Amino acid sequence: MDALPEDLDLLPSTRRALGHRIAVAQSEGRAPSVVAAVARGGALVWEGSRSPAGGHGPDGNAQYRIGSITKTFTAVLVMRLRDEGLLALGDPLEKHLPGTGAGEVTVRQLLAHSGGLAAETPGEWWERSSASLRPELSDVLGAEPFLFEPGTRHHYSNPGYTLLGSLVEAVRGKPWEEVLRTEVLEPLGLDRTTVQPQAPYADGWAVHPWADVLLPEPPEDLGLMAAAGQLWSTTRDLARFGQFLMHGDEQVLGAGTVREMAAAAAPAEPGAAEFGYGLGLQLAESGGRRLVGHCGSLPGFVAGLWLNQAEDVVAVVLANCTSGLPAGTVAADLLTLVADAEPRFPDPWKPFGEADQVALELCGPWYWGSAAHVVRLRSNGELELGPAAATGRAARFRAEPDGNWRGLNGYYAGEVLRAVRRADGSVSHLDLGSFVFTRQPYDAEAPVPGGVDAKGWRGIG
Length: 461
Prior knowledge:
Elements: H1 12-29, E1 34-40, E2 43-50, E3 64-65, H2 69-83, H3 107-111, H4 137-141, H5 158-172, H6 176-188, E4 205-207, E5 214-216, H7 226-229, E6 232-233, H8 235-247, H9 255-261, E7 266-267, E8 276-277, E9 282-286, E10 289-298, E11 301-308, E12 313-319, H10 327-341, H11 357-360, E13 364-368, E14 371-377, E15 383-387, E16 395-399, E17 405-407, E18 416-421, E19 427-432, E20 435-438
Antiparallel strand pairs: 1-2, 1-12, 3-6, 4-5, 7-8, 8-9, 9-10, 10-11, 11-12, 13-14, 13-20, 14-15, 15-16, 16-17, 17-18, 18-19, 19-20
Helix pairs in contact: 1-10, 2-5, 2-6
């Protein structure tokens, strides 16, 4: 994480509120230790920790197991393969990893946990048993891997991400761990994120539910399940990773791809608190704000990583207890504290360096039937189409090489906006997915679907 610019520093009152929140979490959650961090605008702006131990407590350099946050790292590797053209998200697994018995499921369905696979492996609880019990993918999946028809519902699946890890290995021809290190960890400077723990690291503990005593948790190596939950990391590394997930890094994934990962790809599982799931990212809401990130747990550890993209803030919480401390909830609370106390200043308005005259003639009021809309041209070259009233469909559009515009979000995402011209070259109307927008309400000179009454507008009486 870059050095802290002076104008990003948090107010003392905000820093105290953040420290108080994790102090309450550690006390009420009865955690041996908790460590947290907040990043804003690309800089680490706050770190905190809480521990009953005297002397030097854990800090942003201490490793904790991060459990299923590992899945997001694995998803990044898969998206890299997609961006390189080595696979498509719609490809069946069988095309690249044959013989699993689950080959009909697609890459996208595995990323979004909509492949219909079981949540856990057959046999003993994989998180607390030896990986030697699952030497092959058939041991991970079992004889009947599907609980639901692929693509019909969201159902979180750890074996699904084991398949994605094996997919990465099959396409790259290298172990998952090596690919992760060379293609993600090293380029992003995450030198304290590893498959095996490297000192200093926290020990994992279970806390007795009815007594203030501890039991050590076994630090099992997960073997084939590593891609679903093996990693150890620190708050500093995860804060940097969170910044990458918001803005991208051309060494790893571009901004467009990380935005794609953060878009809903599957609804929430029935009864789940989350709002849905993207491609390797959980989606949630807290304090009326949309959050993107992932939570994780393994025996002895809980972890939470959330991003508030609108405020450009990342929060990380790690603790070394099996249960009791809701790391994801605490991380979301840290984001809310910062956003409420110190809302982000909007980017300064700036004009075009050189106005695009073709797009300029599209600006101003248009009418879909009798509903008034406005087209605006922004300095980033995008068009914005939205209702003049308070409610209605709005979208942004990107210029295409053929002179048309492609929808980027909302109802019109992916749809084509065309400026239809008259013989003299002037714009007659806009065509958007069969909707006709005219300069006047129900313009009789434009090809309004269904035509316009020949008598025109009139009163009654």
